Amino acid sequence: MMPFSLPFLGLFLSLVFLVFHYTRQYLRLSHIPGPFFARFSNLPRLYWVYHRNAHSIHISQHRQNWRNRTGNDTSPNWAPLVRYGPNAVSVGSAAAIDTIYRMRGDPLKKSDFYSVIPPMRKGVVLPSIFSTQNENLHRMLKRPIAAVYSMSNLVSFEPLVDRTIEVFRQELDRRFVHSGEDCDFGAWLQYFAFDVIGEITFSKRLGFLEEGHDVEGIIESIWYWFEYVAVIGQIPWLDSLWVKNTVVSRLQPAKWSPMVLFANKREEERRALSADTSEKKDSQVNDRDFLSRFQAALDKDPSIPQWHVTLFPYFPISLFPHFLILCHTYRLQFTNSRAMSRALPAWTSSNIIAGSDTTAIFLRTMFHQLLTHPSSLTKLRAELDEAFVKGNLSETATWKESIALPYLNACFKEAGRIHPPFGLHLERVVPQGGMDVCGKSLPAGTIVGMNAWVIHRDPEVFGPDADAWRPERWLEGDETYIKKMDASLLTFGAGHRICLGKHISYLEILKLVPTLLQAYDIELVDEAKSLTVQNRWFVPQFGFHVRLRRREPRGASL
Ligand code: HEM
């Protein structure tokens, strides 16, 4: 034997293995069209997300005329399925929403993308309703508190939202109306959304509006966290190498995610207040806020377990990066400890992480679309003024008044359609036995997902003008068609993992938009400069500057 034959044999076997692996991977979903390199590697999808415009790329992929292996055109106008990774299929047909996010039977599990999301608390991964892939844990986390988020509970939060709206208006008057200075409206809408969450969760505004900046750097922290999640989530096992590697984490000081630290501080403040017997306590704590209700849920049901999740990554079993098989197993450990339950931070931090940026993006879309479409703004102002003159609209719009305004509600739906705050696929895993989606069979273990940006442009449902802002689409046509469009909206997700806080967002948005439009004339500064948008799973806008003037007299558009 030649001396180099052993390494040569190793190299040869590795090559054979590579060819075998990639061919097998390719053939598994070879009946689904998609970009060439995405059929072999997840690196393209990571690259698209890294460049922060994945939503546009996903839309253009569904608009492409893919040819199948026989050279036939598979998608003259709109591809219902596109392969965006070796094992990942993007579904672009709204008709398949029920198949993928179904309520009936066993729901499809969330993919490993979600394993990257959970924040850490004292070096331990903190489970959350939003991210857990474990359906039993999801039930355990959701059951005790689902009612708190229900529509019927909504009105009890209204006074808390009103308090923040009042402060918002005072700050806008003081800082921008009186001084005539330009306002970074996009940033201020975000301060508003954060302070509402503070108010309804902890009976305490987080101070964004009063201070006029990012308190404790929390907005920035969430931003960087989601940038990490969006990119690493495309190849989730990378997360086990560092951030969630127990070995690495044990060698480092106990880690706290800033969002969890933030929520924890507020809980500690509340515990201190609860111990306080003076009258001050009663004036600062509202027993209708989320924290009080979460605590009541825990007190009512002592069987709610206290848990933590540990992660056991095994070391790489191959040296080739593409063959690193990192098995990790979540193990729940239940304890009877009397220490503060971990359910509480899991619930409160969910509110902060899931409920602030999303609402801020939505609000920016509403205002920006109205300001750049004067005919819509005129129609909406006319509707508001008419309601005001008839005595059906207060200075601070109430929930009951707002939901009775058809054009306002049409603008709300259109904003969620044209710019959904989440801009990546909501991924699920095809269960044992495989399943048919859009007439193609997908083997078990395939990742299937819908990106709301894609679904909301499905020409089958939204027609050829799907790219255009046109709130009127929600008011014309027969009821069946409007119902079909409604059922095709993925703004808040779908099925049993649909957004728990969507009613809170409805409340905030449908109250704030008419209130500010009644109070101010809002003018875009430097209209020529267009808004920039970046996709880090959340798809926020930047550069939304306005000039504000008090609007007198009210009812002026009539
Ligand atoms: C405009 C605002 C919002 C949008 C667009 C939005 C969107 C979404 C979406 C798309 C999902 C489903 C994610 C998936 O399937 O993977 C979701 C889930 C969730 N959202 Fe929201 N959300 C908003 C506001 C809120 C607010 C205000 C809260 C809390 C106060 C909240 C709490 C949650 C929670 C807890 C879940 C997980 C539900 C579950 O898995 O059972 N969201 N949201």
TrEMBL record:
Pfam families: p450. One of its GO terms (biological process) is secondary metabolite biosynthetic process. Gene3D superfamilies: Cytochrome P450. One of its GO terms (molecular function) is iron ion binding. It comes from the Eukaryota. The keyword Metal-binding applies. Its cofactor is heme. Heme binds at residue 499. Keywords: Heme, Iron, Metal-binding, Monooxygenase, Oxidoreductase. PANTHER family: CYTOCHROME P450, CYTOCHROME P450 MONOOXYGENASE APDB-RELATED. Belongs to the cytochrome P450 family. This is Uncharacterized protein. It comes from Xylaria hypoxylon.
